[in-house]
Amino acid sequence: MTASSIVRALSAIILVAAFSACDDPTDPVANEQELITDVTITLTPVGGGAAIVSTIADPDGAGPNPPNAQTAAIALEPGVTYDGEIEFLDRQNPSAVEDITAEVAEEADEHRVFYTVNGLTGVTVPDASMDTDSNGAPVGLIFQVVVDAGAASGSGSIRVVLSHYDDAPKGNGSVPSDETDVDVTFTASVN
User: Does residue 18 lie in a domain region?
Assistant: First the structure.
């Protein structure tokens, strides 16, 4: 066998391996990124009180238009801990609204919601308050917002990022993935 025939044979093997490694476009993708048009946060004071509900809608999903305005600013009270829940919906087809929250819960090992508080002093979203996946890593569909009694103040925001771990393992969930299903920022203040 000549050197050129060996190179051609190796090239053919590499080409066949590359094509067989590619996804078949006719097969459904098991963990494709979610299309999310609505994100709703519900915060209920621990011990009772009226819930705070706020939604950001982006009717075209991740399209060219920015999300609509937030339905209500999140007004937090000093010294209150809130039990939080987040809901993700796909409303692109109004006759068939899809609950993405349920999909995220089913695929908890591949998702994590990150909450970043900006401009608010004494307000935290502890990882330890979150629901967890089968490996004990935070998921964040259920969480708490803790507002310090003495030091909480300010106006700012709570950024919500839903990370999707498809290309890389989630591990302990402490680092966002390079795949983002949603990234929205809620206006918030401490009254």
Answer: no
Number of independent structural domains in the chain: 1
Would 21 be classed as within a structural domain? no
How much of the chain is helix, strand and coil, in % rounded to 5?
15, 35, 45
- Amino acid code (one letter) for 53: V
In the numeric block, which tokens belong to residue 98?
């899809």
Q: Which two tokens stand for residue 134?
A: 């089968």
Q: Which pLDDT score is estimated for 62?
A: 67
Question: How far is Cα 104 from Cα 96, in angstroms, rounded to an integer?
Answer: 18
Which long-range contacts (C-beta less than 8 Å, at least 24 apart) are formed by 17-20? none
Find the CATH number of the domain harbouring 86: 2.60.40
Does position 182 have pLDDT exceeding 70, yes or no? yes
Asked whether the beta carbons of 34 and 104 are under 8 A apart, the reply is yes
Domain encompassing residue 59: 30-190
**Helix, strand, or coil (residue 123):** strand
pTM of the model: 0.81
Q: Is position 1 within any domain? A: no
pLDDT in tens, 169-178: 899 999 999 9
